Amino acid sequence: MNLTDLFVVFQISINSHSPGPLEEIYTDRESDGQFFYYVVSDKSQGQDSMNPKMINGNELRLGFEVSVNKEPGFVDFAKSEIQYYANADRDSFNLLTPMVIKKTPAEVIALYTSSGLSGVLLPNEFSESSGSWVEFSKSVANDESQMVFTYKEIENGQVKEIKALAKGEDYRVGDVYEHWQSLVAEYGLTR
Predict the structure, then answer these.
(1) pLDDT at residue 191 tops 60
(2) Tally of CB atoms within 10 A around 35
(3) Residue 155 to residues 27, 133, 161: CA-CA distances in angstroms?
(4) In the predicted model, what is the mean pLDDT of residues 124-146?
(5) Long-range contacts formed by 51-57: CB under 8 A, 24+ apart
(6) Residue 96 gets which letter from DSSP?
């Protein structure tokens, strides 16, 4: 499935001083202090049936978001994640390669677990204040695979996060990566 039927819930410039609060964008999702610049989902599997201008957090199958968070605990956690991935043993990870981008999340999970690798890293550079990575996982509850692309940047005591989430086997890694990468180019790397 390609990414042609996307539902734009919220989109403003990164330079805007009024990002959207979670309560105006999502139903069935708890806030951890973030505000949004961009939120998009798959129209057929994320739009809330009771409020069609919002995304149902429990039904979301594909989503992209750009957010900012100033909560100290969130900033500290982002610092530790960036440091972890920046210092990860590159020999225990597979880089995102042309072979991987043609696969579904389940196929990638099978690929790296059969080879003894810990996961898949993006071939992006890390700095002390920013980094990118992708995680593939499988739910124990329903045996469903998912992938999450993440870019985090810390500046002026806040975290900018650009995230893509895809659940199930409907989406290829490369399709999700391409849209996420366009968001990193537009909203990432402090301007």
Answers:
(1) no
(2) 17
(3) 29, 19, 11
(4) 79
(5) 51/27, 53/9, 54/9, 54/24, 54/25, 54/26, 54/27, 55/7, 55/9, 55/25, 55/26, 55/27, 56/26, 56/27, 56/28, 57/26, 57/27, 57/28, 57/29
(6) -
